[in-house]
Task: inverse folding
């Protein structure tokens, strides 16, 4: 039996920290919404986070930007339910949570920004996932994602055997079944990936920026 995100969240032994860059991720996402806006008269109005997990950055952005509709999706019903409770407790009416899994989310609309952070590591069909995320991105909108590459594969293959959960969680990466590259993303989507950390003025010396196995990129979809 492989790693299960539903079991992970059902156990309740998790916190609301943001994956990849911790507390910095909220500021980065908030800043990217300004970057993605096409002038003051055409701001970002809708954000989809696919594979939101605890949604730490998403909650922060929803609170800071009440005019932005924040739609969050995750494959694990347990974390979706927990997030709904938190949103109700905090009185956030512009953030919603629903169950959806990649690569076939079943979501029937598009968004100004689609955000998929620390998710593609756990999805087998990377090509189908890219196409689904692109489908959810509105013309003129932006897709933000991290993805596993060969450097992450080397890291995953070197995980200590005593860390069974992490080895199970990253088994697809270790086997090389879902690896991507800049060139592959361009070939699939027909758009050039650009460095997300540069766009949000992240600290170039931050550990997560220096990390080579999980690049963070964004792409703008033609209108």
Result:
């Amino acid at each position: 039996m492989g790693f299960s995100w539903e079991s992970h969240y059902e156990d309740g032994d998790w916190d609301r920290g943001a994956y990849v860059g911790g507390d910095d991720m909220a500021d980065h996402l908030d800043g990217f919404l300004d970057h993605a806006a096409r002038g003051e008269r055409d701001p970002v109005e809708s954000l989809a986070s696919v594979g939101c997990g605890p949604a730490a950055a998403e909650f922060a952005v929803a609170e800071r930007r009440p005019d932005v509709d924040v739609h969050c999706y995750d494959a694990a019903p347990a974390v979706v339910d927990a997030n709904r409770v938190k949103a109700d407790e905090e009185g956030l009416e512009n953030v919603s949570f629903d169950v959806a899994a990649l690569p076939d989310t079943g979501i029937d609309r598009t968004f100004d920004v689609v955000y998929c952070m620390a998710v593609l590591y756990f999805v087998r069909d990377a090509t189908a996932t890219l196409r689904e995320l692109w489908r959810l991105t509105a013309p003129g909108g932006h897709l933000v994602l991290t993805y596993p590459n060969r450097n992450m594969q080397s890291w995953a293959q070197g995980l200590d055997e005593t860390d069974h959960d992490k080895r199970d969680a990253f088994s697809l990466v270790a086997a090389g079944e879902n690896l991507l590259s800049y060139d592959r993303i361009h070939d699939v989507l027909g758009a050039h990936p650009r460095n997300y950390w540069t766009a949000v003025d992240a600290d170039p010396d931050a550990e997560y920026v220096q990390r080579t196995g999980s690049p963070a990129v964004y792409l703008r979809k033609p209108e």
